[in-house]
């Protein structure tokens, strides 16, 4: 099947099943293979628009009685009116456990994100499906993607290396991912993406790369899957 045929298939399936975007199938495959979101999980979705990953994350929590929470962060701007709006929670596949916050992920203080988690104790899963506005210039797009990936890593883990003479952790140096938690980060594949993997590998029990089947054939998207953050 050609790349366009594959894209058409996932687009049609998304419409048929009530997902707001075909990207839902990427997280569905990740869930099927790794089962990172479980009943009772607390999930934060960085760059959540248009909401397909919110839908899959909520589904993965199971019935409402199982508990859990999904928080989506995104900055949705209508440039014509210069109005900033929250991303709308999809009506299908989402329930009262899903909420969204209008904020710029690149400038969101970690302590504010931590305050959005249950009991302000952090999240068990951090998702980042963020992607830059693609210009078509490979090196530029890869650099912007890496910047987003590093930001997701910073929010999740805080400072990964203690600085000399740093006696106490500052409030905004602590990441929002709880011990034993999982991290998913989308990147545009390049030589630099290996650096992100090197940072994560010693911090998690396991880290691996995945290119979901729903990825378009002409895309360089790849996902870093990090399991079980070590103490």
Automatic annotation (TrEMBL):
Residues 19-228 form the Ribosomal RNA methyltransferase FtsJ domain. Gene3D superfamilies: Vaccinia Virus protein VP39. Transmembrane segments: none annotated. The active site is at 186 (proton acceptor). GO terms for molecular function: rRNA (uridine-2'-O-)-methyltransferase activity. Keywords: Methyltransferase, rRNA processing, S-adenosyl-L-methionine, Transferase. It comes from the Eukaryota. It holds the Pfam family FtsJ. InterPro entries: RNA_methyltr_RlmE, RNA_MeTrfase_FtsJ_dom, rRNA-MeTfrase_E, SAM-dependent_MTases_sf. SUPFAM superfamilies: S-adenosyl-L-methionine-dependent methyltransferases. GO terms for biological process: RNA methylation. The keyword Methyltransferase applies. HAMAP family: RNA_methyltr_E. Belongs to the class I-like SAM-binding methyltransferase superfamily. RNA methyltransferase RlmE family. This is rRNA methyltransferase 2, mitochondrial. It comes from Lactuca sativa (Garden lettuce). The lineage of its organism: Eukaryota, Viridiplantae, Streptophyta, Embryophyta, Tracheophyta.
């Amino acid at each position: 099947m050609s790349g366009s045929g594959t894209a058409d298939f996932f687009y049609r399936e998304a419409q048929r099943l009530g997902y707001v975007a075909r990207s839902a199938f990427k997280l569905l495959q990740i869930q099927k293979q790794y089962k990172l979101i479980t009943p009772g999980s607390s999930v934060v979705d960085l760059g959540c628009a248009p909401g397909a990953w919110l839908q899959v994350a909520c589904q993965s929590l199971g019935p409402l009685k199982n508990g859990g929470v999904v928080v989506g962060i995104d900055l949705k701007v209508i440039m014509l009116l210069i109005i900033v709006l929250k991303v709308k929670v999809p009506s299908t596949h989402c329930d009262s456990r899903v909420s969204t916050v209008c904020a710029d992920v690149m400038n969101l203080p970690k302590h504010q994100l931590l305050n959005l988690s249950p009991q302000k104790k952090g999240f068990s899963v951090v998702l980042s499906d963020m992607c830059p506005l693609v210009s078509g210039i490979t090196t530029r797009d890869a650099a912007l993607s890496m910047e987003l990936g590093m930001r997701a890593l910073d929010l999740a883990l805080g400072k990964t290396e203690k600085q000399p003479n740093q006696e106490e952790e500052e409030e905004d140096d602590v990441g929002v991912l709880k011990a034993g938690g999982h991290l998913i980060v989308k990147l545009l594949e390049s030589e630099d993406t290996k650096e992100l993997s090197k940072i994560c590998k010693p911090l998690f029990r396991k880290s691996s790369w995945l290119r979901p089947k729903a990825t378009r054939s002409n895309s360089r998207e790849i996902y870093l899957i990090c399991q079980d953050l070590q103490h």
